[in-house]
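SEQUENCE-TO-STRUCTURE ENTRY
===========================
What this section holds: a protein sequence and its matching fold, both as plain text.
Tokens: labelled as protein backbone structure tokens, with as many entries as the chain has residues.
Question of interest: how does this chain fold, as expressed in backbone structure tokens?
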Amino acid sequence: MVCGGFVRAALIIHAITAPAVDVDIFLVAATPSAGLSLAMSIAHVVASELTVASVAVSMSALTLYCIHPTSATHLVIQIILCAFPSIGAVLRSFDLTPCCLAWTGTRILTTPAGGYYLDTGVILAILLELLFESLLR
């Protein structure tokens, strides 16, 4: 699942025509080992479709620095190495409303805060604990 600012950019412009694109891929998996297996599968697919110039690995992400073969667009693809239990859990981890968007390959999903951004264009910094506490009352 792709989340964050790339989804917003794709809704506004044809994002692949930009000179540089940053894509964050979040994993929804039942277990950490299933998440790692999924991350490796995604990395192999990316490597088969794009020219991977370099790779960086940290505790939190596998980052692939790529070049699109036909448009010469520079792509930074980060596979976030944290298996989330649900799409909602991923979206709740963002603190800026334009990032509270997800694309599953067939649908765009958002939170109420992300929907507010889509409706108004107003960017809000979300105080997550206060927001979720108020929703639970």
